[in-house]
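Morning run. Coffee first, then this:
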Amino acid sequence: MKKIALYILSITLCFTACRKDESVFDQSPDERINKTLSDYQAALVSSPTGWKATIIPGNGGIYHFYFRFNSENRVVMYSDFDTATAKHQKESSYRLKALQQPTLIFDTYSYLHLLADPDAAVNGGSYGSGLLSDFEFALDTLYADSIILTGKMNNTRVRLEKASQQELDEWQNGEWADALSFINIANIKNYFKRLTLDGVEYEVHIDPASRTIVFQWLSGGAIKQFATAYYFKAGGIQFENPLTNGSQTITGFSDISWSDDTQTLSVNVNNTAGAIAGAVKPLKTDVNAPRRWWQKAADDDGYWVSLQGFHVNGVDDAYGVTSIPDYAFMIFWPKYGTNSGITYDLTGFITADAEELALNFGAAYQTPAFTSDGRIMFTYLGTLGDVPPEAEDAYLATAGNFLNPAGFYLVQTSETSYDMVSADDAKTWITWVY
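And here it is:
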């Protein structure tokens, strides 16, 4: 009898263990994911004053956004990408979707897409990838007053936080747009940009894509340098790290305004008025830079590369070299060849013929002269090869620009890059990369 009871018990246990219709969950997988999406949808529309967000793309820079979602899958936004996005509210669509996890998708082109646009001309990033940002986000964590997101493509981390009425007003009243006036620094046509503040002069260099700022100033006759990231805020910009120069500390700029008439950017620092304006020469000339630039390639039997040719009076690629058929890049090659006993340098135009690079024409110059005050001077010898008719205008303008009678300063911007800047007005320059 005991054996029979044990046998019946084992059958019961087996039957119980093998039932497939029982679940540890109260709801089916579809019901659970729909509930999660519903919770996120309710959270997104729950803030009547919207959400604020900070986005740091893979290429660097700190960008701020404002979003307000409604239950009809529409979202309005502002952004500190530029003055237009900070001033004008934009409406687009969004949707929540169950992919591998709940996902928030901004599915029409919006201010958010500007960071991710693969056209580098849009955002100053890299061709094919933009600033390495996202517009589809996995919904990671939902809190009472914030939502954590992660980009699906580039893992961009975003935290949405409920905005206050004051924070919304700052966008709507134009305080963010006022701050974005700072980007007008790019409209100063001179290469050298000088900040005069309480009697101190600073050279200012901006990288708008990565939102970094570099200051140089003279101390005891020597150049001091400081670099930091910056970000926009309502009414001004904030430095990630403060600049300290003796008793002077600069943490950012406020009360920013731009004058087209004077080409001057007015700022306020610690209740002290300052101005950023163009300058025609460096704060201190690196007198050895021209020789160092030329000698580097000459010693290596190598060449310097420029992708876009000359920037002139605020216009990139002013002479249209990138419009030359099959254009790839320009080069400057010291000691390229010898003609009638004269060793010459070459500014060559590289084209891509049949998927191969070719140097078919260029301008030959004598070995340059180097002045004691830090300028390089070029003397034209002639043309190498045959210039195609469709390239003639760009070629002649570029070759002629080398003959600026005032010559050029060379500004070293990294171990492998220099900017060659016209010494007459500093409104013409070309970037060389090794």
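Confidence is low (pLDDT under 50) at residues 1-25. Good start to the day.
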